[in-house]
Amino acid sequence: MVTLVVVFVLIQATLTSSWFISVGNGGLWGYWGTVETCTSGSSARGFSLKVERFQGSGDDTALNGIKLYCCQPGSRTPINTITSTVSEWGDWTNIYWCPNGNLINFSLRVEPRQGSGDDTTANNMMMQCSDSSTLTGEGMSWGEYGGWSGVCTNGICGIKTKVEGNQRGGDDTALNDVQFECC
Q1: Which residues pair with 44 in a beta bridge?
Q2: Which stretches of the chain score pLDDT less than 50?
């Protein structure tokens, strides 16, 4: 009887545990949104970014959201899309698809804190596919890419974003960081 209970606890722990990949250069501001996940049996094969373009003398936010396109294995027809928290500014870019396979890791382009200047924080993102191709988003060019995240061997199935809300006339940064959940 005791052995049976131990096995049940181990199975339950395995079923409820999640593994997220992240990068070390995410921004400081905002709050983590809820995790959104792909429909069971699917994984992310493509992504698009919500980007506010250069505002001239206005307040720039750059990257405002990330959308993942979840598909069944071997398909490019999305079953669902997932975003977590998305800020209000900008427009969605084109979709970037893995030629074959799934999205497995990422690198985030982040502008460091600007002191008394206009902060944008996250500006763009690159993602790698299980077929070794690299996809670069259509974000802004401020800041530098940090190191690559860990790898989700079986693909990415979830997203959680850190977004700063509207500062009502203050310096808005919008999306600051992201974590992806492994399948």
Answers
A1: 70
A2: 1-16
